[in-house]
Amino acid sequence: MTKPEFPSSIDAPSSQRFQRFLFPLITATLFLLSLFAIGHMLDEMTLEKVISELSRLSYRQISLALLCTAASYWVLSGYDWMALRYLGRQLPYVTVVWATFCSCAISYTVGVNLLSGGSVRYRIYAAAGLSAGDVVRITLFGMIAFSIGTSVVAAMALCLQPDIIAEFTGIPSVLLWNIGFFTLSLCIAFLALTYCKRTPIKIVRWKVRLPSFQITVSQLIVSVVDMIFAGGCLYILLSEPHLPFVGFLIVYSLSFIAGLVSHVPGGLGVFDGMILLAFKDVLPAESLTAALVVYRIVYYLIPLILATAILAIREITGRPPEIKVKTES
Prior knowledge:
Elements: H1 8-41, H2 47-56, H3 59-87, E1 89-90, H4 93-110, H5 113-127, H6 132-160, H7 162-169, H8 173-196, E2 201-203, E3 206-208, H9 213-237, H10 245-262, H11 270-278, H12 285-317, E4 326-327
Antiparallel strand pairs: 1-4, 2-3
């Protein structure tokens, strides 16, 4: 019995046209709403006050923020390292760190990780001997692992400090705790599946080989540690924050995820709007804005400049010698 065929000449193009229209519309809407929210909350703020708050930041704060940024980007290499283990490939760790840093620094700012981050990874990993298919798998593997990990961080924070988000959003703390508990339960179920299920699982028409239990646990650890360092970068820049770091991490992780999902370059407007909305009654708008400005420079702009310079030097001087990829037995 043959599979039924559908008229792709009509459905596929119309679906593609719909997606090309819908996703940019959602992105533009989120961006405009975020700008409106930021403008509303910063009505009484003056440029002089922001400059004054910037001058209050100490060299120690900026140095610690730079260290947190470096640690965050270094930890991100764990995603690609685990993806290579999943694929049964081996590359020098320096190559993995280089590829991860350049791809993440660019994709975090440009957005559309699969295209921007994937293309940067391809330039580096292809020279090391990996195929285009392997690079796509590594990129998808990292995106899924990052999404799961950040969701787990947010869920843990909701279970530990639901009252903080309830105060900012008006959502009952019991409901927030249940959301966090449900998310953690799904994570535990997935961990149990990777521990018990050694054969591929079938999803519709595709067979998917689950990562090992050890790789899955390592992914979650990488996600948690990365979010701690990334959130710590902004937390350090705040002037006398009157809230615990765990509570801050709730808002940061949720804002960071929203910025990534919006596909607005760097989450600009979306991330900042959520942070400003959440902490408007905790910190002065000028102090928070100054911290966000420096955070943007430290966590996004400086890594972007370094990554661009590294890639430019690589292209000018020519490709490095080809590295033979080892296959794990």
